[in-house]
């Protein structure tokens, strides 16, 4: 049951859209699914989101195709286009939609990334945002001069100092240089590129930044880590956090925890937005949506995908396992050389064995096959129901401080966002909790965030 405060005005809901690419959320085999790499798909998706008055579009990053048992993972063969190129192109075909991209702090350098985001912010007239992420993955690191050797504590230290350096670069361009205008014989004040210097355990850089201060001061900063280090990093540095906690109680715990850390970093409650990723299944009635949701889950977890997901936990070659039979009787492998490269978490054997036992208990209790068990235990849709039910649920969750809004992940790309925009958004507008027009000129303004100080 939701509970929310009655001593404040109703919160305004923030909505965004995640272009997911081909993964376990996307039903790429559906006839209505389009290309995941052609520019027309990105344009259609972005323009639907803008028609729905969404705050921003989110584009994930993939720096290496995933592999499993030495083979390219089936759902990754579409490829992963460059984030900056796509977002810069979308700036030309949208007017208000924020353009958010994930860029890794482990394998890049501050000057280059700061310059790219400052450029995107100018091209889009103040609509750029950076989702700052880290990577532990040595497999991905093989593509770069610097491999994925950093332990978790050092990854976040590098991310922290990386962001500090980028902010210093963005903030060096000041309007304090007086120049003589020879044509008119007058003196004018013009923005001047200031010198920068940043030296620490990760970086030793100095010089002058060559892109003027952007329309929104500097790009909006997102963070997506869920560890203790990630939560502290978000509370200290981020404008918004992209979380995975889309259900009520889980979301409320996460919201209270991260918001509760802000004061310790000298920040206010409203300085950080909590925006979980959320999937949805929309139908004419709640009963139809529940049935449709089950069909979609079976499409998302095909027999072949079920075996792939099983192998990721068991860390064994299970290509001969029957997905319609029971779970394997053999325990997960203790080998730390993971069978899945580029996507699986680095669980210890104890963690893998504990989770396998949970899966077995669920399978036995409900009489489920391997595939049915994986459908049961892996990600479910966050919101299922009619338009009225979904609008009401999202509103209740936001007012109950489970989130400040949601980043929607449709299962059909690029057109799967349209039913939400056409049917749910009008109901949120009727409730007075979602905009009827863009209020601001920049992403920062539309998110209700303060302009950064220098």
Automatic annotation (TrEMBL):
Keywords from the UniProt entry: Flavoprotein, FMN, Monooxygenase, Oxidoreductase
UniProt keyword Glycosyltransferase present: no
- Check the record and name the Pfam families matching this protein: Bac_luciferase
One example of the protein's molecular function in GO is: monooxygenase activity
Q: Which residues hold FMN?
A: 102, 156, 227
| Record EC number | 1.14.-.-
Superkingdom per UniProt: Bacteria
Q: Which residues form the Luciferase-like domain?
A: 28-400
Does Mitochondrion show up as a keyword for this record?
A: no
NCBIfam families in the record: FMN_nitrolo (TIGR03860)
Protein name per Swiss-Prot or TrEMBL: NtaA/DmoA family FMN-dependent monooxygenase
Which family does this protein fall into? Belongs to the NtaA/SnaA/DszA monooxygenase family.
